[in-house]
Amino acid sequence: MRPSLKIEIWNLLSELGRTKSLAQAAERLDMDLPAASRLVSSLEKELGVEILDRKRKPAQIVTKSLELFSEADRIARQYQRLLKTAESIKHQDTIKPKRILKVSLPANIDRSAYLNAFSNFERKHSGLRVEVLIDAGEDGLLNGAADVAYFGYRPTKEGIAWIPAGHNVTFLMASRSYLRRNGTPQSVQELRNHTLLLRNSSNRSFSRRLENRDAVFEIESDEKVHFEDAYSCRTHLIAGEGISVDLVPSFVADELMRGDIVPVLPGWHRRPWEICVCRRDSDHSPLVSEMADLIVENFKKHTVDSWMFWYRYFSIPLESVVLPAVD
Questions:
Q1: Residues 280 and 146 grouped into a single domain
Q2: 100-139 confidence digits (pLDDT tens)
Q3: What is the count of structural domains for the chain?
Q4: Among 60, 72, 247, 262, which residue's CB has the most CB atoms within a 10 Å radius?
């Protein structure tokens, strides 16, 4: 047996002992749920002890593993004391940042994985502070409000260099309370009889197109469609007021794990949309390029893994998603 040397595993186990919920523990640590699940699995293999009973939905703590949590908490607290001591030594004199790097992220994503990566980036580059903005847009990038921007679309304005990161994928979701009151649609055509929750049409990645392998369905009428920002969509989804079309599952990870929210018409999903990480074409700073590469790396590691995790979790065929070719 080789005990894990990764402190994040012990932090996660400590929070899991407090919350008794993997989703809540991951949220408290700003960690995406699939990554947290993989960490616990790796620790189970290393220790040879089952920590979570994954046969139950959501996964439950195995009773005989409870004594592990107090030891994990002791390790986590000791590490935090070590960090505070180190910070005290490091910052005996107030040091102003030598440079501020401004990064724009969209509102409709789980930002936890990126914020952790940005903290590590700051530690790697002494005197650097990373500031996060929300949806600065192409104009914000060009006028210097942001140095690096994550867009859910391909930029069109001149003066912007971009890196294709991949595609975002969602699935239709509704609360059990909504389905009890309104019935569960059995075909995509029956969506015409249901209230649909969509991101605002002003969003550059907006689409009315639903896909399932080669099959296509267009949401034509606005009569029963509510166009809202991501957080309003989430609120109304949880309240049982409609079927979400393009909300990323990480926004309601806890509700999905509990079974309060479930997939609707598995296999049907909003058309995947392209993700691009951008900078000004005239900005050749190595820091900016490194940050752009970091965001691309985190998107591929966390976002792609996240939607695939949920598809596998609910046994939705991955083959139902056909990603557009990147030219």
A1: yes
A2: 999 999 877 777 778 889 999 999 998 899 999 988 999 9
A3: 3
A4: 247
